[in-house]
Amino acid sequence: MSQIVIVTDSTAYLPTTYCEEHQVHVAPLSVIFEGEAYREGFDISVADFYERIRTGSLPTTSQPNIGDLVATFEQLPEGTDIIGITLSSGISGTYQALHTINMMIDHVNVHPIDSRISCMPQAFLVQEAVRLRDAGATAETIVHHLEELKERIRAYFVVDDLEHLQRGGRLSVAQAFVGSFLKIKPVLHFVDGKIVPFEKIRTFKRAVNRIEEMMQEDIEGDGTGYTIGVIHAEDSTKAEQEIASLQTKFPNAQIEMSVFGPVIGTHLGPGAIGITWYKK
Predict the structure, then answer these.
(1) Of the CATH numbers 1.20.120.520, 3.10.180.10, 3.90.1030.10, 3.30.1180.10, which one belongs to the domain with range 154-279?
(2) For the packed helices 204-218 and 236-249, what is the interaxial angle rounded to 10 degrees?
(3) Which of 17, 181, 214, 237 has the greatest number of C-beta atoms within 10 Å?
């Protein structure tokens, strides 16, 4: 059986220790402040990033360096299968970059997988790929399973400040102004790989409660067999409070915490929270 290498980008926000232990190669995306690029996970911490945007700095983002990926892949043995799990192609060119690399390098087989999302749901896919690889599954089996799994993952987000959605072109200036005046906190989700509003709800707490309502409609019983993720934007206290709430509703679910790092934080801003879940 050929060697299987698992690659993802930094927006999965997996712990470095996990990636090192399980031989997951991470391609960093960057945030750019005033013309200077910072690779998330390498050159800028989550705390430093949010401190900078709270002071008014507005970054842009860029995809991984294709040249670095090509150099890494060229060193792999003949016939290696590369499972490349990327953030949504609707907000980044990383997925297409893997297709381009696959045409550039002949001696390895690149299998690009568009997560159609990012952050913890993307990490779920990586973790499943690791589990299957370690169990001896073929690349084709892993790809098929991940394509099926990503259709079962649910994820919703709430932002605390509409300014970042407006700056990113997802809300007009007028919509952001009216929404802020009325204390609208849109519940967001991914549709066709892009971040779009799901419902417009007044107050942050009500928006989070709405997500919990949808979870209770979708999750069976006490949560047995489900994995739930709570994602925060450098506000672990808010995330821990949400986890405590979810533990009372789904006591047998596996509940984990992660962060919106710099690249995704650029789109959502400080104070955002996300909740994601799927049945194993």
Answers:
(1) 3.30.1180.10
(2) 40
(3) 214
